[in-house]
Design a protein that fits this description.
seven-stranded mixed sheet, Aspartate Aminotransferase, domain 2, alpha/beta, 2 domains, about 15% strand, globular, single chain, three-stranded antiparallel sheet, about 375 residues, Aspartate Aminotransferase, domain 1, binds pyridoxal-5'-phosphate
């Protein structure tokens, strides 16, 4: 049994071959079509396709005007990419504590971390469970802060009836190999404001406007850059893979949720094991199934000895030297670091494999 799985549909293989044969492998019609399909199938608002989730985060910070001297509040319970994107702008990451029963940033801790230098908040929807977006949105409006959701795990998740990707000024998704939807590597930045959308499209390709900067008589587009831009666009080969995989996304999401329900139901009363506390007003995409477990090392050894892969996916990133590694008082993050564990959950798991996981846990550790 594998812990993760990369889903590539037969249609994705065929579309990739067709794209290769066409020779049109850079950014073009397939990227545009992929963006339109993300809007149509998943309700994402103005997605700008880019080459990774990290690029999407950095692009959002850049369009929001975050730079040296600014602070950005984020949770430690994430991948280093979230913090690195802030450093890439020359800004300072400021870590707020998490809610111990969800792994998501705690709005009360955000309030405590706001300073005159705070410019933005990056809530991370840990494992695909949406953060308290109404509370975070209210704090952001009160203090005039930009919200950039890190939704790398949360494609297909909903919050109070609305899709993640339609809630905040910016939302960043990842289409890296083991996500619900993959393009090989890739990502998308959703922008609620049309102005941000146009700026993001320009900045993802060096700062040159491919639609508006016309070609000169001599051939090259006429442009005069006033700001740094990036080479962050998705290419048509990656978009072809995404387009081929996208029709399977609703079924894949449903399968993740079904497996999660089974884990919750069959493992409801296991001593030493606590399920995360998810509210009914939002729907997790269940990219991972994270739980809290007592005597974690014993649990990991017992499960592995029975052929079941279990893993910690990311520990709090605040302890990395690159972020300053200052001893910060984040008791809930430290609790999560000591107790979190994730079970395998992916579309290649049959019902028999799910039963094998629950039986192995019910046998004790
Ligand atoms: C929470 C989180 N944010 C951002 C990223 C970065 O995404 P990518 O690998 O597509 O750059 C990841 C990694 O996949 C992640 O788990």
């Amino acid at each position: 049994m594998n812990f993760f799985h990369t889903h590539i549909s037969e249609t994705a293989v065929q579309l990739a071959i067709e794209t290769l044969r066409s020779g049109l492998v850079s950014e073009g019609a397939r990227v545009r079509q992929f963006e339109q399909e993300l809007e149509r199938v998943l309700g994402l608002v103005r997605p700008v396709a880019v080459n990774s989730g990290t690029s999407a985060l950095h692009l959002a910070l850049s369009v929001a005007g975050v730079g040296p001297g600014d602070e950005v509040i984020l949770p430690p319970q994430t991948f280093v990419a979230t913090g690195l994107a802030i450093l890439m702008c020359g800004a300072t990451p400021v870590f707020a504590d998490i809610q111990p029963m969800t792994g998501n940033i705690d709005p009360a801790s955000i309030r405590a971390k706001i300073s005159p230098r705070t410019k933005a908040i990056i809530p991370v929807h840990w494992a695909g469970y949406p953060c308290d977006m109404d509370e975070i949105g209210a704090i952001a409006s009160e203090h005039r802060l930009t919200v950039i959701e890190d939704a790398a795990h949360a494609l297909g998740a909903t919050y109070r009836g609305r899709p993640v990707g339609s809630l905040s000024r910016f939302t960043a998704f990842s289409f890296q190999a083991i996500k619900h939807l993959t393009t090989g590597d890739g990502g998308a930045l959703c922008c609620l404001a049309p102005g941000d959308y146009h700026e993001a499209r320009r900045k993802r390709w060096f700062g040159i406007d491919r639609e508006r900067d016309a070609a000169s008589f001599l051939g090259e587009r006429i442009y005069n850059l006033t700001q740094v831009g990036f080479k962050y666009h998705l290419n048509d080969l990656a978009a072809a893979i995404g387009l081929g995989n996208l029709p399977d996304m609703p079924a894949n999401l449903a399968r993740h949720r079904r497996i999660a329900e089974t884990y919750r139901h069959r493992l409801a009363d296991v001593a030493g094991l606590t399920h995360l506390d998810y509210r009914g007003d939002r729907n997790s995409s269940y990219w991972t199934y994270t739980m809290l477990v007592e005597r974690r090392n014993d649990f990991v050894c017992a499960l592995r000895s029975r052929g079941i892969p279990v893993s910690v996916i990311h520990q709090g990133i605040d302890r990395n030297q690159v972020f300053g590694a200052k001893p910060s008082h984040l008791p809930h993050q430290r609790f999560f670091d000591s107790n979190q564990i994730a079970l395998p959950i992916h579309v290649d798991m049959t019902d028999d494999l799910v039963t094998a996981v629950t039986n192995a846990i019910l046998a004790g550790w």
